[in-house]
Write a structure and sequence with these properties.
The structure is a single chain. By secondary structure, this protein is α/β, with parallel strands linked by helices. The chain folds into 2 domains: 2-150 and 293-352, Alpha-Beta Complex (Quinone Oxidoreductase, Chain A, domain 1), CATH 3.90.180.10; 154-287, Rossmann fold (3-Layer(aba) Sandwich), CATH 3.40.50. Helices cover 27% and strands 24% of the residues. The chain has 13 helices and 17 strands. The strands form 3 sheets. Strands 3, 5, 6, 7, 8, 15, 16 and 17 form an 8-stranded mixed beta sheet that branches. Helix 8 (223-230) runs parallel beside helix 9 (246-255). The protein is globular, with a radius of gyration of 20 Å. The relative contact order is 0.14.
Length: 356
């Protein structure tokens, strides 16, 4: 089969790789029908995630069909259409029992495309299949479902829930990439007074408006002053950092009001300065987190009833074998307008999607 293989920082290829098979009794093998590329994959290619070994198939988001199951898999059958979660969960360790699947001590957590071969291939082995695969209702398309593998659970759990967004809050989302847009869409579920989206790309800010941002701001045009003007110099209740740069974390720290919350969602590959000399007396809470995906069943229910605007984030469709081209498009959003790039079967036409 073919897979997209990491060969070290700046080097990768769509190439022949061994077919996966069941290695442990709780494994399943899934034929990949739909897959997408995550900003974290770009961080891996830059060398920001050094634990990823050369030779690893990348990817941790997919929709597909179960083709083989191990003898201990109880909740799934071959032929079922499933969502492959970005996080695998053993279900038995201390953290899994607390619903913190991202911190799994039993061989799970974020392993696909990191510690074992991932989903950007024609087939993928999924460990702990009963907890790591979600059967899909017929009303949810592959394209809608694949965005529930990572970005919507991440935005919702690490941004909205960790940030404790509440009715009447002012929320600033710094970074209107895919996860930042998912934060905006799911923050609206909690009836904040206003949501402010900050980014450098006009196209992303336009989509942020469509997903529910009340105010948008170019990151180069003093977003802190805009927030001060909107809040009577108070600051925001919740600042969500959704980029992964030291500069954007510091912007969020300057935006937060006394008693406010800073939710760090971005993947950080470099140290960021925490200005405790400015924050020590302001009662500010800073949270970080790897997504646990405990909310995935809830998000699937909302998607099935049309309550999540998942498909609005998809800007480009590719056949699976055009993976290298899809990476180029996704890695240069300023030139391509890419938000979320989705790849499917070999007969899919390459299409820039017109978002509405």
């Amino acid at each position: 089969m073919k897979g997209y293989v990491f060969h070290g920082p700046g080097r990768s290829a769509w190439q022949d790789v061994p077919d996966p098979d069941v290695q442990d009794p709780t494994d399943a093998v899934v034929r990949v029908d739909t897959v997408t590329i995550c900003g974290t994959d770009l961080h891996i290619l830059k060398g920001d995630v050094p634990e990823v070994r050369p030779g690893t198939v990348l990817g941790h988001e997919a929709v597909g069909e179960v083709v083989e199951i191990g003898p201990d898999v109880r909740g799934l059958q071959p032929g079922e259409r499933v969502l492959v979660s970005c996080v695998s969960a053993c279900g038995r360790c201390r953290f899994c029992r607390e619903g913190m699947y991202g911190q799994c001590l039993g061989g799970g957590g974020w392993v696909l495309g990191r510690h074992i071969d991932g989903t950007q291939a024609e087939y993928v082995r999924v460990p702990f299949a009963d907890l790591s695969l979600h059967p899909l209702p017929a009303s949810v398309t592959n394209e809608e479902a694949v965005l529930l593998a990572d970005i919507f659970p991440t935005g919702y759990e690490v941004g909205v829930l960790n940030g404790q967004v509440a009715p009447g809050d002012t929320v600033a989302v710094v970074g209107a990439g895919p996860v930042g847009l998912a934060v905006i869409a799911t923050a609206r579920l909690f009836a904040p007074e206003r949501v402010v989206a900050v980014d450098v790309a006009p196209a992303r800010l336009e989509i942020a408006r469509k997903l529910g941002a009340d105010v948008v701001c170019d990151a180069r045009e003093a977003p802190e002053q805009l927030v001060a003007d909107l809040t009577g110099e108070l600051g925001v209740d919740v600042a969500v950092e959704a980029v992964g740069l030291p500069e954007t974390f510091e912007v969020c720290a300057r935006m937060a009001r006394p008693g406010g919350r800073i939710a760090v969602v971005g993947v950080h590959g470099r140290p960021a300065t925490l200005h405790l000399e400015e924050l020590w007396d302001r009662n500010v809470t800073v949270t970080t987190g790897l997504v646990d995906t405990r909310c995935t069943p809830t998000l699937l229910k909302m998607a099935a009833t049309g309550r999540l605007p998942t498909s609005q984030l998809i800007t480009h469709l590719f056949p699976l074998e055009r993976m290298e081209e899809a990476y180029e498009v996704f890695a240069h959003p300023a030139e391509t307008g890419a938000i979320k790039v989705v790849l499917g079967g070999p007969h899919r036409e390459v299409v820039p999607v017109q978002t509405t």
